Each structure stands twice: as structure tokens, then as C-alpha cells.
């Protein structure tokens, strides 16, 4: 029996979007309802998921899904499977995808540590950052990653404001997809700016790995900002719901003979 590798790839990417949906939905709900848990940052997200029925199984699903999504974004960066191109704008998109890939790898690692060690998992992202800082040019690497997050944030905001993300979603998607997606992308842009700034400071301003913020930490950092925090929390929850739609209706590149998808037209 011949297995269609393109279908396997598509299924893994959809699992990735579903895992992202769980992650952002839980984060949004925690931010809106539990000040104590949001103060724990990313660990608070995985603590909450672990308490769900079949929580450990959900964490393992998220490990697989977040890894699949990260590899999808790495493929977008290095092999241009979504045909962004090799001009300045194309590379800016691809670098942004690379930043997203690294971020989702860190989240997959955190989910793995919680699935295997529970609440005693520690902070995998900061441990990794400490290791990078101890290497030659490690600070520059983190600083450049911070710049990649700035680029990603800019494109997230642009997607939210223009609705360009709809070009890669099936016309069968629910009618409110654009509104929910736009709200989610703008909120995500704010969070990515916070993450990027923490990486930039750690890399270029001798801030230290302890100040690096992952997804949950970035949202928690906004907790004292009043209405800004509430709007971002609502937007993060919206992005979780939007990711559910993507898991079903996102047009996934066909990994055929040429290894990439046809160009999408605006």
C-alpha cells in the first residue's frame, strides 16, 4: 500500500493548528479568569491543561502538534514551500516564519517536560537560553531572534489589519472567520513584541536569560496595563478560536514533486 506523504504532512500540520488552538484558548481563559495562574506565565498554561480530564494525553498531543507546526514553519523559512519568494518582502515573511518556528519548538519542549515531569518541569525555554548565552556569539543569536520576533509581530499586525490571511483559508470557513482572525492577529502581534523585546535585551543589552519571556510570560507581563491587558487577553482567546478554524479550513501546501505549493493570489 502506498502512503500519500502529502496527506500525512497535511494531517500533521492540522494537528499543529489544533494544538495551537488549545494553547491560545487556555491562555486567553486563564488571563481573563485567574490572576494567580497567569502570573506563572507559560507554566500556568500547562498546569491548567494537566488538570484537564486526560490532561497528560492532551499534553502529548500538543507535543506532536507543536513540533509539526514548528517544522512546517521551518520548511516555510528554508524551502519556501508557501512561495513567499526571495526578494526583500519574501525573506521578511520567511524570517518571521523562522521566529515562529523557534517559538513553537520552545513551547513543544515545555509541553514535553510537563507531560513527563509535571509541575517539576522547570523552565525549559530559559534553560535553553542560558545555554545559548554561554556559547560564543550566543548573545548575538538571541538578539537576532528577538529581531525576528519584531518582524513576525509586524506581519501579524499587517495580517490582522488587512485580512490577507483569508487568502489561505477555504471559502467554506465560517462567515465570522475574518473578524475573529483579525482580532487574534493584532493581539498576537502585541505579545510577539513583548517576547522580541525580552530576547533583544537578553542578547544585546546583557539582560540575562531570566528575563526572557515565552508566550504565557509575555501575556502575564501586560497584567498591570488595565484595558490593554484585557483586550490582549480577549484577542488571544479569539486567536485560539481562529486556530480551530485553521485546523479545519487552512489550505495546506501540497508537498508534491516540486516540494512547494502553487502561489496564492490575493
What this model shows, in words?
By secondary structure, the chain is mainly alpha-helical. Helices cover 71% and strands 0% of the residues. It contains 10 helices and no strands. The chain has helices at residues 5-33, 35-38, 42-50, 55-78, 88-117, 124-133, 138-162, 177-204, 215-221, 227-249. The chain is globular and about 40 Å long. The model is unreliable at 256-266 (pLDDT under 50).
Give me a quick take on this structure:
With 266 residues, this protein is mainly alpha-helical. It has helices at 5-33, 35-38, 42-50, 55-78, 88-117, 124-133, 138-162, 177-204, 215-221, 227-249.
| Total number of strands | 0
The gross shape turns out to be: globular
Mean pLDDT: 82
Report the portion of residues in β strands: under 5%
Query: Which sheet architecture does the biggest sheet show?
Result: none
Intertermini distance? 38 Å
Pairing-aware structural class of the strands and helices? mainly alpha
Radius of gyration: 18 Å
Classify the helix fraction into a percent range.
over 70%
List keywords for this structure.
266 residues; mainly alpha; disordered C terminus
List the helices and strands and how they pair.
Layout: H1 5-33, H2 35-38, H3 42-50, H4 55-78, H5 88-117, H6 124-133, H7 138-162, H8 177-204, H9 215-221, H10 227-249
Amino acid at each position: 500500500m502506498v502512503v500519500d506523504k502529502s496527506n500525512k504532512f497535511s494531517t500533521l500540520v492540522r494537528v499543529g493548528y489544533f494544538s495551537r488552538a488549545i494553547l491560545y484558548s487556555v491562555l486567553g481563559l486563564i488571563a481573563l479568569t485567574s490572576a494567580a495562574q497567569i502570573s506563572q506565565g507559560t507554566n500556568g498554561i500547562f498546569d491548567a491543561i494537566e488538570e484537564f480530564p486526560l490532561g497528560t494525553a492532551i499534553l502529548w498531543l500538543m507535543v506532536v502538534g507543536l513540533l509539526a507546526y514548528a517544522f512546517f514553519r521551518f520548511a516555510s523559512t528554508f524551502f519556501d514551500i508557501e512561495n513567499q519568494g526571495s526578494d526583500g518582502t519574501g525573506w521578511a515573511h520567511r524570517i518571521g516564519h523562522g521566529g515562529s518556528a523557534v517559538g513553537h519548538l520552545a513551547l513543544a519542549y515545555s509541553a514535553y517536560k510537563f507531560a513527563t515531569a509535571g509541575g517539576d518541569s522547570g523552565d525549559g525555554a530559559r534553560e535553553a537560553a542560558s545555554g545559548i548565552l554561554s556559547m560564543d556569539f550566543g548573545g548575538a543569536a538571541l538578539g537576532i531572534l528577538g529581531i525576528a520576533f519584531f518582524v513576525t509581530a509586524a506581519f501579524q499586525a499587517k495580517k490582522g489589519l488587512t485580512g490577507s490571511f483569508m487568502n489561505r483559508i477555504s471559502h467554506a470557513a465560517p462567515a465570522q472567520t475574518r473578524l475573529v482572525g483579525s482580532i487574534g492577529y493584532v493581539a498576537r502581534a502585541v505579545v510577539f513584541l513583548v517576547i522580541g523585546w525580552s530576547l533583544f535585551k537578553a542578547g544585546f543589552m546583557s539582560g540575562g536569560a531570566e528575563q526572557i519571556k515565552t508566550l504565557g510570560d509575555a501575556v502575564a507581563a501586560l497584567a498591570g496595563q488595565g484595558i490593554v491587558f484585557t483586550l490582549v487577553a480577549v484577542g488571544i482567546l479569539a486567536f485560539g478560536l481562529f486556530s480551530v478554524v485553521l485546523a479545519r479550513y487552512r489550505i495546506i501546501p501540497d508537498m508534491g514533486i516540486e516540494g512547494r505549493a502553487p502561489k496564492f493570489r490575493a
